[in-house]
Amino acid sequence: MWAIVACLIAYAVLRIILIPSGPEVTKSFSHDSAYIAIVARNVLAGRGLVNDASWLVFLNPPALPMAFHNANPLYILTTAAVAWLMNGDVVRAGLIVSAMSSALLIGAVMWLVSCFTTRRVALVVAVGTALFPSVYQLSLSMLPDALCLALSVAFVAAFVREQQRWTWIAAGVLFGLAWLTRSSSSLLLPAAFVYGVLAWGFRRTMIRCVGVGVAAFVVVSPWLWHSYQVWGNPLRSDVSYYLIQDIVVDKLGPVTDDALLRYWHGTVVPRSMGSVVAQAPVWFVRWVAAGTVQVALALAKAWAASSMVTAGLIALLVLAALLQVPKHWRRPEWIAAAVYMATTVGIFAIRPRSVEVRYLALLSILGAIVFAAVTVHALRELTRGKRGTAPLIAAAGILFWVAVVPFSDVSLTRLMRQPNADRVAQRAMNLRVRDLTPTGPVVVESPYFYSYDTQRQALSIPDSDDRYLMSYMNRYGARAVLLSDAELAFWRPAWSKGQLPGELHVVERFPQASLFGVAAAP
Description:
Elements: H1 2-17, H2 31-44, E1 50-51, E2 53-54, E3 66-67, H3 74-86, H4 90-113, H5 119-131, H6 133-136, H7 145-159, H8 166-181, H9 188-200, H10 202-231, H11 239-243, H12 245-250, H13 257-264, H14 273-279, H15 281-304, H16 308-328, H17 332-348, H18 361-383, H19 390-417, H20 421-436, E4 442-444, H21 447-454, E5 458-460, H22 466-476, E6 480-484, H23 485-491, E7 504-510, E8 513-518
Helix pairs in contact: 1-4, 2-3, 2-21, 3-4, 4-5, 4-7, 5-18, 7-8, 8-10, 9-10, 9-17, 14-15, 15-16, 15-17, 16-18, 16-19, 18-19, 20-21
């Protein structure tokens, strides 16, 4: 056991060593990462969970900085704590949390799988799961997904150990922590309940769920109270806005990146999910049915990574798993896994055309566990002298885990460590704009990047006419608008032809961008 712990620590240290210097200009640092970094930096500075940039225009905050709103807080608080302990920057701290979460995931998967097989097999499956490319990539990013994965799997591992009473509390605590990282962990609850009923019966499951629920509530209650104090709603979330986005955009035309961009920068609060379902329930069912296929294809494409070889190997492993279904389909763990898959795909089928595969990461965990288990099973069959499909499955599994996975992970590591030329140029321009606009927020397309780079306030450019824009700028005291040439052509094509509103003038032209300022009063 101690040898395993030592290996996990060594793995975590190696992952930390691989974090590049200047990570805020690499592919590991996204617009969402900048949001996390801004809030974590404010926590460290004693300003609390607040954000200096406004992204969704229709949220219409009364002032900047605005209250933290886009997610649950554990990853941000953990990032801030690591930055404080190491006296370092929040971006590096966030990447450390993600890297360490990969090591924690190995331990969590081993704890889970050891319920159903030997410890040695569980360790092999756990390592393979953490290195599965779709899972491994999350641990290279400054995002909450890797931490949420580790905590979610640990929750499941604790929950299924019904015979040990202390795991009631452990499961509740772990679920509470997972929910505080990403609220999508709630999608595990139906599957956990089904597993309990099948494995222990309804009465014992209900008793256990009450114990787990009480422990979880104790963990999450500070955040619920905070949300109630700030928003007047303990469960307030942006999730509904993102879940409904494909439906809203589809009503106006094709769901494209440009159309989604206009949705996020829209000035009117989108309609609720309830109103959509109430108005057209039959249409909504058809939409979700079609979306289910799209989500499944998106997940399969991510697993295959646009490689026909990888796709073929995964197809063989999937076929081998399906061949085992008639033997094991009544087992609680198989049925619970199917329930989780149906729940997750069904929810994200509501926004199928803009779904991010990282939201389906637990399905990737399930896939990796199954592929590793199938490979181990085929190798055991060979050692017992059995033939049939065992040689083909074993060969496919070995090739996938020994060749494809390491090559993909090395490529991903190099890709995520590389400086992003566009991001380097953007950062330099943001710093220059900061010097040219000493007061007031700046209106940009990517406000989180601007605020992180400059430690100044920023606003999203609204999808509106110039009259609304000027009113919007006056409301928040904004004195400037920064747009790249491409953004200018998209948001304000007339400006590129010199047709500026009377209140604005050109402050400076950059090689591929323009800064506009509010003209001084006469």
